[in-house]
Design a protein that fits this description.
Blueprint lengths: L2 H4 L7 H9 L2 H15 L4 E11 L28 H13 L4 E6 L6 H15 L4 E5 L5 H10 L3 E3 L18 H13 L3 E3 L2 E3 L5 H12 L7 E6 L16 H14 L4 E4 L8 H10 L3 E4 L2 E2 L2 E2 L3 H11 L2 E2 L1
Parallel strand pairs: 1-2, 1-9, 1-12, 2-3, 3-4, 4-5, 6-7, 7-8
Antiparallel strand pairs: 10-11
Helix pairs in contact: 2-8, 3-9, 4-5, 5-6, 6-7, 8-9, 9-10
Length: 318
């Protein structure tokens, strides 16, 4: 290991990240795996579960999202799920070995009228012994603080892509609003879960700039989900060109080098990945997945399929 790899940096230059992406594949994976071993048990993967607690009808026009009211995806708008149903799902998740329970709601931003029940849900899920995470859209510091007081551990709010490509994906909010939410979450004392989506037609330059934005935050996100686009019929990105799986692995590897102490989450799109591609991602530094057959509204590998893969690779879920 060089000293550069051991230092936690927040001043990565574009050309440095480009050079990482340009490394020979084996050299990049060797370097990323070395960094990974410095900071994590290399054969352990955190297992999370994601529950959609409020489906559809979102006023944002994110080009990848099945839940946007702007897109004709056949998804029906639903109200916030009953608290007892959420808790039942959380108990089942824990019984299945899940350690982190994530809850998502299709909102631009939660209404104040919903905050009391959201805080109750957080407190009661946490009381089950689960790590808690929510993604509810944009937050101001007051709402973030309410969730923090209730015991929320993480708040997820992805940057999605680079600042330069963002307007090609979303037009109903701007990039700075995403950054403002991250600031509010951090100032409230919550851990940050923030990553992006790969394969939306962006260039490698955009992937470089996305990772630069994440790595140069004042504090690295404790959790960095890297999603492969799941193409949903009825969304503007339904016909996006497929991404080379090795480019996805490169993105995981560079994420690990830039943010050595962050959990790098192999998130959406695993149903389209071979076992071999996922194994390369784990070697490159991914150390978290979502269990369960659904991720919000899209498919996810079956739990027994993940367990079989872990067994073949000698990986211990935690």
């Amino acid at each position: 290991m060089t000293r550069l790899e051991q230092v936690i940096r927040h001043d990565w230059r574009t050309e440095e990240i480009e050079q990482l992406f340009d490394l020979a594949f084996n050299d990049l994976l060797y370097r990323a795996h070395g960094v990974h071993r410095q900071h994590f048990e290399p054969n352990s993967v955190q297992v999370s579960q994601l529950l959609n607690i409020k489906t559809g009808g979102c006023p944002e026009d994110c080009g990848y999202c099945s839940q946007s009211a702007h897109h004709q995806t056949g998804l029906e708008k639903q109200k916030l799920m009953d608290k007892q149903e959420i808790l039942a799902q959380a108990r089942q998740a824990k019984e299945q070995g899940v350690s982190r329970f994530c809850m998502g709601a299709a909102w631009r931003s939660p209404h104040q009228r919903d905050m009391a029940v959201l805080c109750e849900i957080v407190a009661e899920v946490k009381a089950l012994g689960l790590e808690t995470c929510m993604t509810l859209g944009m937050l101001d510091q007051d709402k973030a603080k309410q969730l923090q007081r209730a015991g929320l551990d993480y708040y997820n709010h992805n940057l999605d892509t680079s600042p330069e490509y963002y307007s090609k994906v979303v037009s109903t909010r701007d990039y700075q609003q995403r950054l403002d939410t991250l600031d509010a979450v951090r100032e409230a004392g919550l851990h940050v879960c923030c990553g992006g989506i790969i394969g939306m037609g962006e260039s490698r330059d955009d992937r470089v700039r996305l990772l630069q934005q994440l790595a140069n935050l004042p504090v690295h996100p404790e959790s960095v989900p890297i999603n492969m686009l799941v193409k949903v019929e009825g969304t503007p990105l339904q016909n996006a060109a497929p991404l080379d799986p090795l480019e996805f692995v490169r993105t995981i590897a560079v994420s690990r080098i830039l943010m050595p102490e962050s959990m790098v989450r192999l998130s959406a799109g695993r149903t389209e990945m071979s076992d071999e591609a996922q194994a390369l991602c784990f070697f490159a530094g991914a150390n978290s997945i979502f269990y369960g057959d659904r991720l919000l509204t899209t498919e996810n590998p079956a739990m027994d399929q993940d367990q079989q893969l872990f067994s073949r690779l000698g990986i211990q879920p935690r």
